[in-house]
User: What shape does this take?
Amino acid sequence: MPSPEFIFATVAPSSSSSSSPTPYVPRLRYCIYRGMWSQLPENKHNTAPKNPRVYDSDMPTFTTDVRMQKVGQLFATSAGHAAKDEQVQGSGGGGPCEAVFWVKEKGTQWRVKGTAFVVAPDIEGEKESSGVRTVKSEIGGRMRLVEGGEGKEGEWSWQRELTGHFGNCSPGMRGSWRNPPPGTLVKGEPDQDHQLAQKVEDLEDPIARSNFRVVVIKADEVEQTDISDPATARRWKYTLVSDAQDGKGEWKTEELWP
Assistant: This one.
């Protein structure tokens, strides 16, 4: 795609002052597709160490700031129902989500439905939290060994993949993770560590890296709607059918009217 934007939808608990008749309300925003997890896109400007080609997957990724509301929503609507700020600082999440891509050049819309998990700096820390275990189980369970990858699993690192995503961002984008806290009131000048329009060259910048996250979408249903030709318009629904033996399953395809 010439421009890889997509709409990412989450649900958020409705507040006591909300007029919503349901306990959850939808929240949407545009994000930038950053490739499939474990298949870091090539970038000649990225100097970060790269993982060897061991795995592939069908899980889209995007980068975000832990201070953004979407991160808290993915935790609050997960099985663990984490709601406190300190509970969303590490890896975890798993709340429901939907991503919509419109490929104008092809007249095709893709809807990706499933759950989303957050990969944080603690993904390979000394102590493994329940959130880290959840991410490695849910995301790791959908990672497939590529041909020739057998026996090299120990050479692949979650932390290296996280740093690789940070390195794939431009210095200006990396600098956005040193911005003033998103969504907070503008009251005077921010401190020197949190300024707009910074450029970060250091791949281990402590402030930027503390706020940087990769979100991985684990899809269980995908819809492709092709309306490029009204006479032959079709919709296809792909549903993941679980395999009890390897946990990865296979995709069932159904052709539908658009």
